[in-house]
Amino acid sequence: MKILGIESSCDETACSVVEDGKTVLSNIVASQIDEHRLYGGVVPEIASRRHAENILWVANAALEEANCTLDDIEAIAVTYAPGLIGALLVGVSFAKGLAMSAKKPLVPVHHIAGHIASNYISHPDLEPPYLCLVASGGHSHIVEVKDYTHYHVVGRTRDDAAGECFDKAARTLGYEYPGGKFIDNAAKTGDPNAFKLPKPKVQGSKYDFSFSGLKTAVINTVHNAQQKGEEICREDMAASFQKTVADILTEKTMLAAEDLGYTTIALAGGVSANSGVRAKLSQECEKRGYKLYMPELKYCGDNGAMIACQGYYDYIAGKRADESLNGIATLSLDKISE
Ligand code: KG4
Ligand code: ZN
């Protein structure tokens, strides 16, 4: 069963054809990042315009590369939430038009559910239930994946998302947007113990995150040094920062796994590409005898394959949308599981 997946929630216009929720037949991603980089972040209006310009050729390219036509497609899956509303609406409107004209079922997919599903592509043996750490540019969640379409968010960020924190720390160190991968690269040659950075304490849920204090600590350390005319070693700060984030994410995930009785753990979202986070989580899971699943690097960032993959599971669970489908900027995973 072939599903066409459409993703346009942020700054990537992406379409993919996936067979039976695991075999990727095509995965086309048109990134706008070079343009947004000029402004130091994603400009929503530009994102919507570029999606509108790109979506048709990206969808055609995905069908072509998969060597199929719309006739071969069983259903059309589209990200409808969460994300930039104007950006989401381009994908949703396009998918609705396509589904209506081709008389195909339309399946609404939650972006974070898509990120989680990227693990099924790389690891067909992974089956719920398991615990998933989702760290992206907009979200940091610890999620109980109860089955392929039901989730319970047990931990979330109180302020910045992990990816956002990477990007802000990177900007302070003079790297381009989005700076996560530059920090990752610089950290390889830095000393992770050079700077002592805070691990913020969060009142309330013991699985919740907070990254704003860490971000501020990096900014203050760098600015104080600049005011004194001192040079900060970027590699050392990158390594210290990355280690702190990896520790925070891993500690909370291990705590939740222990308390809730999970021995199967997964990682997802853009930050899952980070080598420090992957290494720390692997190390701690191995220590405890937990099985860890991580997406291949090509499926860590936003892509259409993860949406087609989750779309397959949503489709067989009976989820459908009609022409009234709208984009939703903010929508918790818990809400779609009710
Ligand atoms: O999941 P994603 O592609 O988009 C959202 O749904 O938000 O995540 C993008 C985030 C950005 O903040 C980016 O800097 C971060 O993922 N990222 C990384 C790495 N690659 C991407 N952060 C740390 N290390 C990386 N290697
Ligand atoms: Zn994403």
CATH superfamily of the largest domain, by name, is: ATPase, nucleotide binding domain
CATH topology of the largest domain: Nucleotidyltransferase, domain 5
* CATH class category of the largest domain: Alpha Beta
Tally of contiguous helical segments? 11
The count of domains is 2
Summarize the main sheet.
5 strands, mixed
What is the overall shape? globular
Summarize the structure.
The protein is α/β, with parallel strands linked by helices and 338 residues long. The chain is 44% helix and 20% strand. The protein has eleven helices and ten strands.
Characterization of this structure:
- This protein has two domains: 2-116 and 299-337, Nucleotidyltransferase, domain 5 (2-Layer Sandwich); 127-297, ATPase, nucleotide binding domain (Nucleotidyltransferase, domain 5, 2-Layer Sandwich).
- Helix 4 crosses helix 10 and helix 5 runs parallel beside helix 7 (212-227).
- The two termini are 27 Å apart.
- The chain contains eleven helices and ten strands.
- It is of the alpha/beta class.
- The mean pLDDT is 97.
- It has a five-stranded mixed sheet, sandwiched between helices. A five-stranded mixed sheet has the order 8-7-6-9-10, with helices on both faces.
- Strand 1 and strand 2 form a beta hairpin.
- Bound molecules: 5'-O-[(R)-(carboxyoxy)(hydroxy)phosphoryl]adenosine and zinc ion.
- Residues 111, 115, 136, 270, 302 line the site of zinc ion.
